[in-house]
Amino acid sequence: MTSDAWAEALGYSSGEGNLPNPGVLARDIRGAVLEAGQIHRHQIIRGLAEAYEPFSPPTEELRRVVNEVLSSLVLAGDLVQLSSAAGMAFSATPPRLVDWGSDEVVILGASALEPSSVSEVVRRLPKTGYDIADAPPLVTLQEELGPPGWRLRHVELGGADTIEGPPALFSRAVDLARGGDRLALAGADQIRILSGRGSYFGRHDSEQPEGRWRVIGLDGAFPAVRRSGFRWEQCIVHIEERRATYWDVPDLDLWRWAVIGYTQTLPQPTYIADGQTGVLQFHVPVPVQIRRALSIAGKPMKAWSWSVGAKMPGIVGMLLGEAQVN
């Protein structure tokens, strides 16, 4: 069988670098997961390498894009990632359609529904493009996402459930930092604090702090990073009368929510939604829940930027405890 005939039989199409298109990879990964019920990462990579062998994709590059697509499928909620003695494994989530007020719905989980085009990782269908009788349950995007992530993290830290927004989470983190370990201000080059303003977030690990990052100095409470060995650890710093204490944030996503809470107290926008172009641009690192919403109902543009429909800025604003459309 020629490679063209094999491509037609597989529904295969390639893109840059002779690699399969992400939509093709996503379809084939979902098919492997549905057939196996649960399948390990190395089995997926080996099986796809064998299936695509007639097209000679570069082995290491294929492994890289398979891992990227797997991450995207987990983020969207198509697959769930499981740890096992044999390594990372994947299984499909329950089938459902997700509606966010657009003229499309997204297919997630163990559903055999497939769009006619496989250009995207996430499966989208027109609302009139499927048989309701054969379709999985329909849920709203808000139901799919659950409560705003900052509320759940606030409760995890021992705070009461509240509707006060991410600043309540930052306030709780500051309380923990106030009672935390001492921090030597003499090692100011070993810590960077997020005390600046502006739309450019910047890098904390550049030779000189850039964007909103500053060296430690003034009194106050700030999201920060501190050097620990060869790494930078996310933390919250409290400084009062030259006495500094800190609390190491348990995970990066919690720190992102704390950054949003702090930014809202300034006050400063965490994102801008352009109603004319439909582009939503963030000025802060984006928590997983928000990225998940945008992976379902938006299309990535550049870093921290998505193309979205008219309803999405309001949904994102609800998750962030704010609403702004410019």
From TrEMBL:
<protein>
    <submittedName>
        <fullName>Uncharacterized protein</fullName>
    </submittedName>
</protein>
